[in-house]
Amino acid sequence: MPRLSDPRITKGHAASFLVRLYLQEPEFLSEFRQLRQNHAELLAKVLVTQVEFLVKCREVLSIEKYQKMVRALYQLPVTRRSIPTLPENLTRQLEQMKQMYVKLEPYFHDLEQLASRWKLKASWAGPMLYLYHIHDCLRAAGVPDAIDVPLEQLDLLYPWPPPVSPLEIKVSAWAFVFYGRKQIQVEIAKKLKDYEARLKTVGLKEKPSALENHAKWWFEHYAKGKPYRELAQQFSGTEEETIKRKVWEFSKLVGIRNR
């Protein structure tokens, strides 16, 4: 069965596919790296401060308050109303971090201008490029690209609360005596199917399978200026009108202004 996806997560995946294509374009990557170099010292300080801050928050805050803090940081600038009560030392560190972000405003502006020149006219373009910069820094420091997250900790993965409460399944030890493992697996499968159906009723949909292709078509058309007829020849087996429609739908999905 296909995986499900929240519409916000689908949009994030689509935007990520597109940004990766930009970062594989030598000319764009050169300009991006130059901007980073212009602000390298301050960017490094901000990253270190933010990582230290979140580590300390995780040590002293409950899971609920920590999630609230993470969500607040996704919506900078952070205001006192949007964050939980913090110990004095963390409050000072948060104020320090906010001041650093103010100093980085020229960098964020430059990122937005870079994206706009390359036809990537979306409100998320600058922040997404900044996140990829953070990713590069963490990878250079030895942080792995991917980590295995236990099922019971996935609620912490995104800055939004899950759409419904977690599914809890309890299996008595006597079930192995009364039913056996095969029948237990059948009963669990039924519960999973019912839970998946419930998720679909609150807005989760099957994850689109062709987003990467649509991102590629969009990039080739808008960033590289290739007409749809040429794309239909390049990607044999796909009609010109289909590519045109999917490029339009992709722009709408990720919120790009094409004019």
N-to-C SSE string, H for helix and E for strand: EHHHHHHHHHEHHH
* Helix content range: 55-70%
Count the helices. How many?
12
Low-confidence stretches: none
The major beta sheet can be summarized as:
2 strands, antiparallel
C-alpha termini separation? 39 Å
Mean pLDDT: 87
Biggest sheet: strand arrangement: 1-2
Please indicate the percent range of residues in DSSP E strands (runs of 2 or more): under 5%
Q: Compute the number of strand runs.
A: 2
> What Rg, in angstroms, do the CA atoms define?
22 Å
The structural class is mainly alpha
Shape assignment: flat
What do these coordinates show?
The protein has 259 residues and is mainly alpha-helical. 64% of the residues lie in helices and 2% in strands. It has helices at 7-23, 26-38, 40-60, 63-73, 88-103, 105-117, 125-140, 175-178, 181-201, 211-223, 228-234, 240-254, and strands spanning 4-5, 205-206. A two-stranded antiparallel sheet has the order 1-2. Helix 3 runs antiparallel to helix 5 (88-103) and helix 10 packs across helix 12 (240-254). The longest helix has 21 residues, at 40-60. It starts with a strand and ends in a 5-residue tail after the last helix. 13% of the residues are buried. The model has no long low-confidence stretch (mean pLDDT 87).
